[in-house]
Amino acid sequence: MTQSDIWRLSATELSQRTIAGDLTAEAAVTASLTRMAAVNPDLNAVVEDLSSDALDRAQQLDKARAGGAPCGPLHGVPVTIKINVDQAGHATSNGVSALKDLIAPDDAPVVKNLQDAGAVVIGRTNTPEFSFRADTDNPLHGRTHNPWGRHISPGGSSGGAGAAVMAGIGALAHGNDIGGSLRFPAAANGAVTVKPGLGRVPAWNPSQSAERGILAQSMSVQGLITRSARDLHLSMPSLIAPDPRDPFHVPMPWRGDIPDGPIRVAFSKETYGYDLHPEVDAALDDARAALLDAGYHVEEVTLPDVFDAGRTGYRALMGEVYALMKGDVDAAGSQTVRDIFEVYFQEFPPFAGVELLQMMAKRTQYARDWSLFMQRYPLVLTPFLPQPFFRPDRDTEGAAGVHEVLGCAVYSYAMNFLGLPAASVPSRLAELPSGPQPINVQIAAPRWREDMAVDACIAIEDRIGRMCDPLWQRMSDTSG
């Protein structure tokens, strides 16, 4: 492999070479920075370039290794951090112009954990205003584009992260997810992710002046977006390292016991009244076939009511958002995001008062139903969205736009309300009239068993292939 191709390596391949001494951290980081300089001007995925700091850190890692210091599992692996999470000395703007000078006094736990493992932060990635859209654009940094083409939104709110990692800017991309913000970008860009379950990854921003609402705390999680499913097994054990600043983090090991016999997978194409697009239907069949070939027992069954759990959960979240966040959106948000929030409140009428408390309490009933169901079916394979990914700014097009973007995404935010892990993996590349588009499916797992969902993603990826390979060919062909 030539120096110019190092950026193509997965995080797993890269760490193996840097730890063995076959590749320096400086060479690994330099390759990613060169790639970023080449493709980011068109994508606008990374909105704060940290090249100088990254090279300094890579050189320090190389000196430490040469001096006999042990290497972390992510030694020299280039990563990006989303701009809504604290990184000491940098603005946690959250895509909001009024917060452009909110400089973090210290690193958030995820940033510390990644760097403690040897990772090198090369840049900070874009997010929509308040990190509360499934598309990525804001007045402060502008629009992020999807490397597959401008006919597809890059997703959100970790849209910069998804576009960056799939374009080859860094081997790992940090993101977070309160209703789908890791999985939307993974689906949009053909990447892989696992939304961790409640309490799995320590979270806190030292710059914050008040605690978040209780639903935001219990539905929002930190995670990583990758090009290869195996990179999640490499990187997530570092991300989940304990941090005392999150008092509700649960220090469980990454790997759990392997069940005896074939693992049962509940399979459903139910879309609760929304039309299932033929390409999504085919992607589900492809994923099922891959799991069957890998030895899983896949059975089409009726699931506990995802629609009721998802809609109830998001209406409850909107109730909390309306009470605690609407004032900030009105005061500091653009007209675009204020208009979108008004339609959110129409699509998901906020619960309030006693009813909000009752619906928050009902969360336990839904979670219990799923816990019992997963005694028999520890994995659940479903659509992520019933349709191929939407076009940019679709959520600015009134009620119909928000309904297509979020209204139909019940498989997404239901998992946040339930607190369950949910992975997203591409299983098909669709050639649509608008252009090529990856199609991802979702795999949910029991609490604390993100590793089982990732294993299933690996089984699918091994049989279908990584989506970055055809993407890079197309990017090369386009650039001439």
TrEMBL record:
Gene3D superfamilies: Amidase signature (AS) domain. This is Indoleacetamide hydrolase. Residues 28-452 form the Amidase domain. Pfam families: Amidase. The keyword Aminoacyl-tRNA synthetase does not apply. GO terms for molecular function: hydrolase activity. It comes from Phaeobacter piscinae. InterPro entries: Amidase (IPR000120), Amidase_dom (IPR023631), AS_sf (IPR036928). Belongs to the amidase family. NCBIfam families: PRK07487.1 (NF005687). Keywords: Hydrolase. It comes from the Bacteria.
